[in-house]
Structures are given as structure tokens and as C-alpha cells.
Amino acid sequence: MSSKAKCEVCDKEVNPSGLKKHMLTHVPQSEWPHSCALCGKRMQARQDVAKHLKTKVHANDNVPLEGTQEWNDLLYHDKQGNCEPPKKKQRVLPQTFAHEPEVIDLDESNQVPEDATWEEENYEAYNEYYDLNTGYKMPVVQFGTYKLKGIDCYNSCISALQIGYRGFDTASIYDNEELVGKAVKEFTNREELFIQTKLWRSYQGADPKTGKPKCDAELKKSLRKLGLDYIDLWLLHWPGPGRHLNYPPVKQGMTRPKTVIPDNENTKVPTDWGPEMRLQTWKFMAKHVGEKVGSIGVCNFSVRQLQELLDYCEEESLQIPAVVQNECHPLLQGTQVRELCKSYGIVFQAYASLGAGSLGLLENPSVVKIATNLGVTPSQVLLRWAFQHECAVVPKSVNTERQRCNIDIFNFELPKEDMEELNSLETSEKGQNTMVGWLREHDPDFY
Question: Residue 394 needs a FRET pair 20 to 30 A away by CA distance; which of 5, 251, 322, 350 works?
Fold first, then answer.
């Protein structure tokens, strides 16, 4: 029995969730239910208005931060100019606010007594850097922004700057580059900052019509949203193809190998994707090094994929990756990838260092015991474990005190026996590269 719904006008079968939007294709655009308050353009869905407000069409219109009252006024504007916010939470907004949130001003941070400033006590915390193989330096601890949206993203980045973070990790798919950019603009010395973003996997290869690299336009878009002339690090987000988000290739879960959903196996983007395309994309990305990009790197690559890329770089006389960013924590240690990186002078950057709620790493008895014995927090133990394995980290928190703790990992050391106890927590299967991330995807090495 078909799970599709049939359009009464054209008899086309579509997903039930998309039937309403499909029906609007049979209606004149002037009758579409939503419009942009700034230019009047009619649109089919509220989500379209939200995306439209973030495009370059309104780049000079001082569009307010997502999540503020002014943003809601624009988003829920109707034909008559009235604003009718939803009575229930909308999917288009990642969060709602009971009142207009305060926007933190970098110049109005709370003053700390001169005889005991946090910055003086933790001076080394934001002066630890790794040397990249491109000659640049990268902060060991950067501020992660995955899933941060709206005013929370902006305020968190501002407080991170106040505390001493000088590196920020974002991505085009995070849909928060503009907010990160607005925050870092408040910091006057761009040369002290290290900004990294990522090329989403759907933009690999060249445009079949023009032959132009798809990544070129994406780089321009990221730079425009960030409001920067250059980025310090540009990462290829995933070694495989993009996916239509409503059609994951496998059933969700941490189990490897995963259970394939047969009907979704070929819903890849680009449709002609092949393993050689990631190598071609790397070559396209490398052309931007020295102009708009300081260094390039990759994310979620397995040992096999990374070695293939390194061999390709040697054959084509290309820059090898400066950074590899993979999931890494005591339960999934990525030892082989880290060792390969070390042999080539590549910095390994760990994401998901604190695990996730389902893993319970922060509540793990070994982690809690070590934290108690050393007088630090469980998150500091996990981040310090990564640092002693020569990893860079990108912890995220909207809580100011946790942000302080996450960068304050250089004033203590884990003894050998504690490192060995944490190393013994490994639970990943042989060759596994992701655990809490990419739950609806194959393991990266599948590609």
C-alpha cells in the first residue's frame, strides 16, 4: 500500500507532509499565504520567509537577530501589516522567548576586582596554540557553535570572547554563521581570532552545466554571512554525499553496521556522487588557500579515506590537510586516525569531547572520581584527556561558568594512572568513526 498522498489537481503522488505546499504550486504566487515584510515577496511557507530574510537580498537592511521580538515581527507579518505571532511554538524557530532577550554588549562586561581577575588566574588558558603545517597557529580550545541559534548563539559567542576564547567553530549547515560573524565583529582585533567553518557535503564536485566548482559560491556565501574577508580554516564537512534530509540512508542509532533503508539508498546529492568527487572537491578547495582561506582540512574521515587523500595530494602536488576534525572521546578514541595525523604533522581536532546525554560520559563513575580527586569538573577531565592526547577541542555551552571551566584546562594534569583508566573506557567497534554524531548516516568509512 502506497504511503504517498495524491494531489487532487494533478494526481501527482507526494509525501503527505508536503501535500499542502505542493497544492500551492497550483495557486498564483500573488495568493501565496506568506510575505516578506521588507520587500513584499510572496512565499509558500513561513520557513521560506525566514530563509529569505537571511539572504543577500536584505544584507544591507539591518535584519534583526533571530529570536528577538523584532525578528518575530518580521516573520509573522501579514498582508495588512499586522503581526500575529503563533499561539504555539513553530518549527521554523529553534526557540521562543517570553520577553525580548537582552543582547550582551562586549564593552559592558561585569568588572572583576583587580586583585583577583579570572583572566590573570587562567592566563595560559587562551594562550595555548598548535602550529599548523601551513605556518599558522590554531587555539587548542575553540568555542563550538553546533545547534546554537538566535540570540543564544550571539550572546554565547560574546561571553566566550569576554572570557578569552579566540577561536570559533561554525559551519554553513549550522545556519548560524551570520550570528557568529556579528559577535566577532565586536572584537576589534581580527588578527587575534581564528574562525573556522565548513563546506556542506551537498556542494562537492562541479556544476554539471557550467563546470564551475560548487564550493566557490559556498565559500563566498560563508564569507558574506560571517562578514569577513577571509577565514582561517575551511573544512570539508563529510566524506560522503549529501542527503535529502527526509530520507536518511539508514535507521537511526549508534550500532555499526547500520540497518539500511532500501528505498532511500540512492537519494544522494549530487546524484552522480562517487568517491573520486571528494578528491576533486579537495583540489577545488585548495585553490583558495592563500587568498580567502588560511588553511584547509577535513571532518569525519576514516583512516582509509585520509590516506587516500594524502596520496592524492602527493600525486597532484596539493596542500595536505592542516586539520582533521573527528568525533573523539574516551568511548570512541579514534586512535588510528590520530596516529596517522601525527605522522603527517596534521592537527587532530576532537568534536563531541563531552559525549552526549545518551552516553553519560559526564556521569561516568571513572570520570566523576577523577574530577573529584583533582578538584575539577567532569568536563575539564574529558577536555584535558583530549589535550594530553594532543587533540584540539571545540566545547560548547551557553552557560558562562561552564564556558570558563571548558577553557581552563591548562592549570592541572591528569596523572598516568588516570589517563590509563580513561583510555580503558573504549567501547567502539573496530573501524568505527562516529558514535553520537550522524545517527541517521552510515559510518563515514562506508563511503
Answer: 251
Q: Measure the CA–CA gap between 366 and 378, rounded to whole angstroms.
A: 10
Query: Cβ–Cβ contacts within 10 Å for residue 51, how many?
Result: 13
Residue 168 burial (CB count, 10 A):
26
Give the CA-trace dihedral at 167, 346, 279, 213, to 10 degrees.
30
Cell numbers 585548495 correspond to what residue?
286
Give me the residues paired with residue 198 across strands.
235
Point out which residues pair with 347 in neighbouring strands: 323
Report the mean per-residue pLDDT for the chain: 85
Phi first, then psi, for residue 210 (nearest 5°) are -100, -20
Q: How far are the Cα atoms of 246, 266, 318 from residue 263, in angstroms, in the given order?
A: 12, 7, 38
Q: Which amino acid is at 277?
A: M
271 grid coordinates: 546524484
**Model pLDDT, residue 118:** 42
CA 49 to chain CA mean position, Å: 23
- The 3-state secondary structure of 67-126 reads CCHHHHHHHCECCCCCECCCCCCCCCCCCCCCCCCCCCCHHHCCCCCHHHCHHHHCHHHH
Tell me, yes or no, if the pTM score tops 0.70.
Answer: yes
Region of residue 164 (left: phi > 0; alpha: psi -120 to 50; beta: else): left
**DSSP strand pairing (293-299 vs 268-269):** unpaired
If you write DSSP's letter for every residue of 11-32 in order, what string do you get?
--EE-GGGHHHHHGGGS-GGG-
**Pick from 244, 228, 312: nearest CA to 278:** 312
pLDDT tens-digit map of 60-90: 666 776 656 666 666 666 545 555 554 433 3
Which cell numbers hold the place of 107? 564593552
Residue 228, CA atoms < 13 Å, CB-side half-sphere: 32
The bridge status of strand 13-14 relative to strand 129-131 is: unpaired
Q: Centre a 10 Å sphere on the Cβ of residue 232 and count the other Cβ atoms it contains.
A: 23
CA distance 408 to 126: 8
Q: What is the DSSP string of 228-292?
A: -S-EEEEEE--SS-EE-TTS-SB-SSS-SSPPB-GGGTT-EESTT--HHHHHHHHHHHHTTBTTT
Identify the segments of the chain with pLDDT beneath 50. 1, 79, 86-101, 105, 107-125
Residues classed as catalytic:
174
Q: Which residue in this structure is represented by grid cell 566557490?
A: 216
Helices (H), 165-233: 177-184, 214-226
- CA dist 137 and 158 (Å) reads 22
Report d(CA 368, CA 387) in Å as an integer.
Answer: 18
